[in-house]
Specification:
Low-confidence stretches: 1-5, 11-39, 380-410
Number of strands: 25
Mean pLDDT: 84
Strand order of the largest sheet: 1-2-25-24-23
Largest sheet: 5 strands, antiparallel
Structural class: mainly beta
Strand content: 35-45%
Distance between the termini: 34 Å
Number of domains: 1
Number of helices: 5
Order of helices and strands: HEEHHEEEEEEEEEEEEEEEEEEEEEEEHH
Shape: globular
Radius of gyration: 20 Å
Length: 413
């Protein structure tokens, strides 16, 4: 597969990335500065490495899109709670495509559509007999069809490009938790049977299924995320086994990478994943509180994010999506010295940074590394001792596959 020039130099600085940029490594605990004023940015990897990922913006409600702040007089008339009409309460799955961000809100519950160009927020599935109960993931096809997995209703609700419901897919006994569209196929992670279903996305009929409960190659213990690459190969993140497995489009096992650990390239609590058009694999880890990026040969490229309060920090991240479409919708938010190639959306279940958007790209000619990093608010992240504490709770939760225990009680997968 063709390699992007974007990551041509990253192999040479892999040691720096592993030590300085990955949450959970031996870097000391630091709190990121609050660079929230206009003109302030956050970049990864950390200085002095070449910037590759920029934090762009966090969205919590329609007010973050419009830039409008409710006045004290409006609070007096309408009440302060009026600002929460479009608020995202507890996001889970996410899809970013062509200037829109689709967010599964499991507490509202609803599918929230952040229309960046129109500066609008729309809610789907909040009324009628077909309203959503616990939406956990969303996938949008190139033709605009929207597929939402609702694990409480045990169904996939299908909406047209006009955002009106057109169908409901259901399979007896299943519990869908993650979705991916490729061509006319819909790949669905079923938490109940620990398998992946291949469905016809037009009719909802099951074409094939693969996987079962277990620890052998091709088996799962909590398959929590699925995505496909441009060639149709299927990637599944297995939370309890702390690994990502790769399958053919027909579901034949090929290989796997990752293991339980507290070092760069390992996983503690992997959640959803995304694969971009050049084969880069992005894996969210709720324990590390970051996103690790691997190439198509499963070598670690870098990571971004960490716990904290600085812009771009993460707090129990779970959902992720990446696209090269619609970059123009965020044009005014990119650093003038940074050339974006992808937009990445990550959901956080706690804290104010509900839906955070990042850009993958490279430094523009004429700008120095020092100039970009001088505006950055990134922090090194969580110290090793704190990471081991988190890791221990995950290991204890593995005694009962499918039951994450108290450590994940707020996760609502």
């Amino acid at each position: 597969m063709k390699k992007s020039l974007l990551f041509g130099a990253l192999a040479a600085c892999s040691t720096l990335l592993a030590v300085g940029s990955l949450t959970g490594c031996s870097a000391p605990t630091q709190a990121g500065p609050r660079n929230e004023a206009k003109g302030q940015y956050t970049f990864w990897p950390l200085s002095p490495a070449e910037p590759r990922v920029q934090f762009v913006k966090t969205y919590r409600s329609g007010f973050d899109l419009s830039g409008r702040n409710q006045s004290g007089f409006e609070n007096l008339i309408f009440g302060e709670e009026s600002e929460d009409v479009s608020a995202i309460e507890k996001p889970y799955g996410v899809e970013v495509t062509n200037g829109k961000v689709y967010v599964c809100d499991i507490r509202r519950p609803a599918l929230t559509v952040l229309d960046i160009r129109k500066k609008q927020v729309r809610l789907i599935g909040t009324q009628g007999t077909n309203r959503l109960a616990h939406p956990v993931d969303v996938s949008v096809a190139p033709d605009g069809m929207i597929y939402v997995a609702d694990n409480e209703r045990r169904a996939i609700l299908v909406y047209g490009a006009d955002e009106r419901r057109v169908n409901t897919f259901a399979v007896e006994g299943w519990k869908p938790v993650s979705l991916a569209v490729h061509g006319d196929r819909l790949y669905v992670c079923d938490l109940e049977s620990q398998r992946v279903l291949i469905m016809d996305r037009q009719s909802g009929s099951v074409i094939k299924e693969f996987g079962s409960a277990g620890g052998e190659p091709g088996q799962f213990r909590v398959p929590i995320g699925v995505d496909t690459d441009r060639d149709g190969f299927v990637y599944v993140s297995d939370m309890m086994q702390a690994r990502v497995q790769k399958f053919t489009p027909e579901g034949d096992y090929l290989t796997a990478f990752g293991e339980l650990g507290d070092y760069a390239g390992s996983f503690a609590r992997p959640k959803q994943l995304a694969v971009d058009e050049e084969g880069i694999i992005y894996v969210v880890d709720a324990a590390f509180q970051n996103v690790q990026m691997f190439n198509d040969e499963f070598a670690l490229l870098m990571s971004f994010g960490s716990a904290g309060t600085y812009p771009g920090a993460m707090n129990l991240p779970v959902g992720i999506s990446v696209t090269s479409e619609g970059l123009d919708a965020y044009r005014d938010l990119f650093h003038p010295g940074f050339e974006p190639e992808r937009v990445i959306a990550v959901t956080n279940q706690f804290g104010p940074q509900k839906v955070s958007v990042y850009a993958l790209g490279k430094r523009q000619d004429g700008w120095t590394v020092a100039q970009l990093h001088s505006t950055s608010g990134a922090a090194a992240g969580v110290g090793r001792n704190e990471q081991l504490t988190v890791l221990q709770s995950v290991e204890e939760g593995q005694q009962e596959p499918g039951n994450q225990g108290a450590a994940d009680s707020e996760d609502n997968r």
